[in-house]
Predict the 3D structure of the following.
Amino acid sequence: MLTESTVTFIALGAIFAFSFYAVLNAGQLSLGQAGFASVAAYTSVLVAPDPDVVGDVPALLVALAIGMTAGATAAVVLGLPTMHLRGVFLAIATLGFAEAVRIFVLNAEWTGGAQGMSVPKVVTPAIAWIVLAVVAYWFWRSAPTRYGRALEAIREDELAAGAMGIDVGRHRLGAFVTAGAVAGLYGVLWAYTVRLVGPADFGFTAAIDGLVTAMVGGTTVFVGPVLGSTFLTLVPEIQRALGVEAGWIRPFVAGLLLLVVILFLPGGLAGRIPRRLRVPDIAADADSGGADGEHPELRTRVHAPRGDVVVRLTGLSKDYGGVHAVRDVDLEIHSGELLGLIGPNGAGKTTLVNMISGLVPPSWGEASVLGVTAGRTPVHRVAAAGVSRTFQHSKLFGRLSALENVLVGGHLVTRPTLVRRLLWLPSARRDERAALTHAARCLDRVGMLDAATTRANALSYGDQRRLEIARALAADPSLLILDEPAAGMNQVEAGELARLIRSLADDGLAVLLIEHNVGLVRQICDRVVVLDFGEVIASGVPSDVAADPRVVEAYLGTEA
Amino acid sequence: MQQLLNGLFIGSIYALFAVGFALVFGILDRLNLAHPAVFAASAFIGIELVTVGGLPFWAALPAVAVVGALLGLIVERVAFRPLKGRPDAHFAGLISSIAVAGMLIALLQWRYGAETRRFPADAFPATRFDVLGAQVTLLQVVIVAVCLTLVVGLTWLVARSRLGRGMRAVAENPTAARVLGVNVDRVTATTFAISAALGAVAGALFAMNVNSAQLGMGSAIELKGLAVIVVGGMGSLPGALVGGLLLGVSEVFAVQYLGSAWRDLIAFALLFGILLLRPQGLFGGRRARQV
């Protein structure tokens, strides 16, 4: 059953599946990998030296290098115009690319048309498995790095990832180019295995096979593609061994098995493998590394001195098709100040903070936030300037653990470790441990260290809100925006939260707090701004604002 | 003129096929990749009904539609309903529908073998018309009439009927629709049944148009269907109609001016141009992003 060719094809299938894994792990669905493989195979077969002249292994190495480069280049060329597409749109666009490549190859003269070109057989099972090991090594080592976590965060929630300072566009393109390079490897290996490079091998069916292999194996753990390929390659072999030869039974059983895996094994075959993450002992660490958490491994951020203006809004307005969501707001927020923003439902509070954090461009006016102009600067740059926020509807990275969520929150203050981890440098280990300790401290600050390994979507509502605060704190922000953090909390939880928020402002942060719980706002805020129908109707110290007749009117209506 | 008409005939079949795709995507936000398998299955079943059952070709169409609707119900029940509520339902739905498509094609192979099937020679009337100097057969007129009637009828159904209101409510927000008393499961199943019935009729008409049915015919039209719904705007029914006709006509002209080898490139050129210039498609509205 395990003939030489079966063993080789398991490795090839796994490599191809890794090229789908590379993008699926970052939440993108691309079907263009067959096109990348095709470009790579044809380029290397035409350009690479003849194995009879230079020897098998050198020729193959050159061919693989050419193929990887060609695949990655094709991915850049296709990726630059299509990276703004999402979900099935990206899938269809990339599929269209692959199909266009196939039709081109079929009709061009120099490619040998439908017959293809013959290629010497060079690949042995050992070579195929060595290449697979290299590819798997990349995905194994890159997963628990800042880069790998950023990709997972993008998969879980792109918007929140951007608000944590992750350059979503660059990371998505990075994943796409990785997919192109891996697909290129596959294309070259395939050609030098089957002794032929022809258009039929890189068609729609091939793309679907690769996708299916990746999904069956699982797209969140790096062994997934290997498991998927082993399973799907062996199924027909087992059927043959059992003497099932009728033409239709084999595809039928393959389809049935695929369906069973998808329906009953969410996360694929590798979905059952638990993710390990050691929660650092922060008490022990505090003894050795300085009590106030000064870590040379983390980037330190410079905060504005207490009392400095961190946000200046001038005439800020937002129209949605004629509806004035926010109208002509002038506002300053100072370092170390806890500013409450209240107002009835639909008053424009969330729109206002979306403009301050750069998610929504203003229609008029200007928002100068920590030296950048929000709305004209990409979201991740606004975050890099020192703005961090929570969302009204919790936008946690649902399938990541609480600690991993906070680790992503620390994206801006931790160092990239990908290259050093690939090279096993000890400094990468130190930096990763520092990042973990930092994340654990932030979790501890909101009192959630006990839940560090719980998946975010399994947490209670109140815990999710606190986790969002911890994640926002991990970025070491200068301005923290909290959008209704106490919603859905009971009296006791809200009281604890109030103390936490007050302590943050006392540490010197500027905090902008949107809240419906007017009692809580009066209790802790230094200053309150009231918004109604998009306009500021009152601002000042809490007791004055609460007595303002216009505020009472906005909340309770006029006395008849 | 002849070319233009030929383009419209094939284009109306593309449109009918793509409308089924677009209906499921527009309402349920899912891409059903078992649709092309239903398309192929109905072509074979249509031929069997005419050859063995002795039905005249026009009577085979409603029968095929019923079979298609049943297949659609099965696809929904087996490949999509079990995934409800899973965070990866989007990707998983693609894969499970691919799995069901593979099973369906395998069953076709078992029942009909791998060879090409054809209608009997006398299945279609030989009546021909002369339209503005171009030759048109009665069959081609029937194809266009059936396609246009079904697409327009469906558009009316979605826009006006009680069922259509339920569909649009589910499209907007399934949870809210359920709270308001819409039977979401039933609306979903009905959507799949209607979509598959249209795909089935398209398959039978396609087989009549070229007088053959092959196991691979579904995958050949699948990419074109995807191109059509992107060009028209994902989920837009009028968009799918216009996109289908546009694709049919441009293909015919491409064959004439560029040669038949490049015909299939037209769909992807269109697809790419639209995705780059107007990602929401010709008739698609831009969806607001929620924060």
